[in-house]
């Protein structure tokens, strides 16, 4: 690809290279979460949300469990200002939720921001200015001292104004915006200068937020930068170290996770990663990643379809079908070997320890996020196998197809899907199965069969079963009496009394009650072979198991006839 030499690495490695975060292999507890959907997410929308939408979204974020919500940039527009005023004046902010607002480090903007907060019980005021090499050079055209002064002037002004609004419990936050393009030593210097002005205590901490404003490096470099800051910030025990990853390289979640290992205490992000350009870090994925490691994320995504619905409604954007934990296809297994393993894993779980989730190929139980096994997990197309087809027919329709029959049914279904180039639904699969195998009564039909038993209950005893049956073949009726050493043998002997030559060999038989049918029918499966050794399965159902077996035999014989092996 041309023009690659136009680009250079734009980040700066910290001065040390021995890091503790690499020694950790998992996140032990959930961070403090801060939703920035209503600010960073909103500022990136084609049409930012209106007041009503923001109010509804705010209520939903509280429902999910967010305790910190950056509600906007009140100095940006009337809508932003009005939104905050409405939340405060209509007492819509739950006591355990803190609203956060963003401000540039400019006097009139800071003043307007504080004005918007009058009457709030507690609030985070979030001050930022750009610190990166590129922004200092091109946007602000200021040296490091002048950039530090922007931050410290704003920090001092916040101290001064906050002292006038004593009814509100303020928490201050500072972001060296464009941190990832900033020399770490300089980011540290500016953050420490702000901390020294705010003079936090362990009881009244400040938030230092490290944004990957533009994600520029591999995640481990970001983690190194975070750890360097965490280990060198002034009054570390009085600082909440917050991270605000974006996703320009597609690794925002990795930045956040490694950043937490490296000392981050708090995450700013959005639902499904909405936000500037490629978005903010996706809090849903992050939270669910913790969940799958047995850590309570402190946010409730147990109704994920609703989360998707709300998100799409507020942002007018769509959630990708492959998006982790929430996309429409993330639980779907079309391929045969995956289906086989999932079906066996589900069975194992049911038989061993249903309280644990270890099913192969499914990192979480779909039920935990409000999804279903039916329709969501095992789905049939030309890549599917016998296990998946048998699983669906059993799960949804109660037919436990014998192992020896599964390959034939599986290949039939995948062949149909291959030709139509379409997925087969559970109902379509059952329809094909029923049409092909079950109670197949033409041209042969046995419309009545009454059995009398003269049998010993002992294995070695003599069994005689007599049958009186009405046989219809191609419209001709035959009333027949016959005997045999079992019911199927009696029926087979009876069929020999018709003018037709039923030339077949019995291979196998199984039966069971149909588990999902409330009318408690039975299903019987019979396999016969013709004189050339070709095998034919037939399935019969009836309330009476004996008659189900007769129906299975009739179905198998008719399927054999279909292949022109039943000759007169
Ligand atoms: C990475 C982020 O997401 S940061 C947040 C970004 N979000 C937004 O910008 C959304 C809301 N913003 C707005 O509505 C507007 O930008 C406002 C109302 C805040 C300010 O509007 P305006 O004053 O008209 O203009 P604008 O934002 O372009 O201001 C640029 C000026 O502010 C300066 N500036 C920009 N950011 C900051 C900052 N954080 N602190 C101090 N000065 C800043 C610029 O250097 C420039 O100065 P100049 O006029 O001397 O050249
Ligand atoms: C204001 C800051 C935190 C920001 O949104 C960013 O840098 O992405």
Automatic annotation (TrEMBL):
Subcellular location: Cytoplasm
Cofactor: Mg(2+)
Matches recorded under InterPro entries: 2-isopropylmalate_synth_dimer, AIPM/Hcit_synth_CS, Aldolase_TIM, IPM_Synthase, LeuA-like_post-cat, LeuA_allosteric_dom_sf, LeuA_N_DRE-TIM, PYR_CT
Short name of any one Pfam family annotated for the protein: HMGL-like
Binding site for Mg(2+): 40, 244, 246, 280
SUPFAM superfamilies found in the cross-reference section: 2-isopropylmalate synthase LeuA, allosteric (dimerisation) domain, Aldolase, post-HMGL domain-like
Class of this enzyme: transferase
CDD domains noted in UniProt: DRE_TIM_LeuA
Main function: Catalyzes the condensation of the acetyl group of acetyl-CoA with 3-methyl-2-oxobutanoate (2-ketoisovalerate) to form 3-carboxy-3-hydroxy-4-methylpentanoate (2-isopropylmalate).
Family: Belongs to the alpha-IPM synthase/homocitrate synthase family. LeuA type 2 subfamily.
Assembly and binders: Homodimer.
Name of the protein in its database record: 2-isopropylmalate synthase
């Amino acid at each position: 690809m041309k023009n690659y030499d136009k680009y250079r690495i734009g980040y700066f490695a910290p001065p040390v290279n021995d890091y503790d975060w690499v020694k950790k292999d998992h996140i032990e507890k959930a961070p403090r979460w801060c939703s920035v959907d209503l600010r960073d997410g909103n500022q990136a929308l084609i049409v930012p949300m209106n007041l009503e939408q923001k109010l509804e979204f705010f209520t939903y974020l509280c429902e999910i469990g967010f305790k910190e919500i950056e509600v906007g940039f009140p100095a940006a527009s009337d809508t932003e200002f009005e939104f905050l005023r409405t939340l405060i004046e209509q007492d819509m902010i739950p006591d355990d939720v803190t609203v956060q607002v963003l401000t540039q480090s400019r006097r009139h903007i800071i003043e307007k921001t504080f004005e918007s907060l009058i009457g709030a019980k507690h609030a985070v005021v979030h001050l930022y200015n750009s610190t990166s090499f590129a922004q200092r050079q091109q946007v602000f055209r200021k040296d490091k001292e002048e950039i530090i002064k922007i931050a410290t002037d704003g920090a001092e002004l916040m101290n001064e104004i906050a002292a006038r609004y004593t009814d509100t419990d303020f928490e201050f936050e500072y972001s060296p915006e464009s941190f990832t393009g900033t020399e770490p030593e300089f980011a540290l210097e500016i953050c420490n200068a702000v901390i020294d002005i705010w003079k936090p205590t362990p009881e009244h901490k400040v938030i230092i937020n490290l944004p990957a404003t533009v994600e520029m490096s591999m995640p481990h470099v970001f983690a190194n930068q975070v750890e360097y800051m965490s280990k060198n910030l002034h009054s570390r025990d009085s600082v909440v170290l917050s991270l605000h990853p974006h996703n320009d390289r597609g690794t925002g979640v990795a930045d956040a996770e490694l950043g937490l290992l490296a000392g981050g205490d708090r995450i700013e992000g959005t639902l499904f990663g909405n936000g500037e350009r490629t978005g903010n870090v996706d809090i849903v994925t992050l939270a669910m990643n913790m969940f799958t490691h047995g850590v309570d994320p402190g946010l409730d995504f147990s109704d994920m379809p609703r989360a998707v619905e709300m998100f799409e409604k507020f942002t007018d954007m769509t959630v990708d079908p492959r998006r982790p934990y929430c996309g429409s296809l993330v639980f779907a297994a079309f391929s045969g070997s995956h289906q086989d393993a999932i079906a066996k894993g589900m069975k194992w779980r049911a038989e061993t320890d249903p309280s644990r989730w270890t099913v192969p190929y499914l990192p979480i139980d779909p039920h935990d996020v409000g999804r279903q096994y039916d329709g969501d997990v095992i789905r049939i197309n030309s890549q599917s196998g016998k296990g998946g087809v048998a699983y669906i027919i059993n799960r949804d329709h109660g037919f436990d197809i014998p192992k020896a029959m599964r390959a034939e049914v599986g290949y039939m279904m995948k062949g149909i899907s291959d030709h139509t180039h379409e997925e087969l639904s559970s109902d379509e699969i059952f329809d094909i199965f029923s049409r092909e195998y079950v109670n197949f009564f033409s041209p042969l039909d046995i419309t009545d069969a009454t059995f009398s038993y003269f049998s010993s209950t002992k294995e070695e005893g003599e069994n005689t079963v007599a049958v009186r049956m009405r046989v219809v073949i191609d419209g001709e009726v035959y009333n027949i009496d016959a005997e045999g050493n079992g019911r199927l043998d009696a029926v087979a002997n009876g069929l020999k009394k018709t003018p037709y030559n039923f030339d077949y060999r019995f291979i196998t038989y199984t039966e069971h009650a149909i588990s999902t049918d409330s009318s408690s029918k039975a299903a019987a499966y019979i396999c016969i072979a013709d004189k050339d050794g070709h095998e034919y399965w037939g399935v019969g159902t009836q309330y009476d198991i004996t008659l189900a077996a007769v129906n299975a035999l009739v179905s198998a014989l008719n399927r054999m006839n279909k292949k022109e092996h039943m000759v007169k």
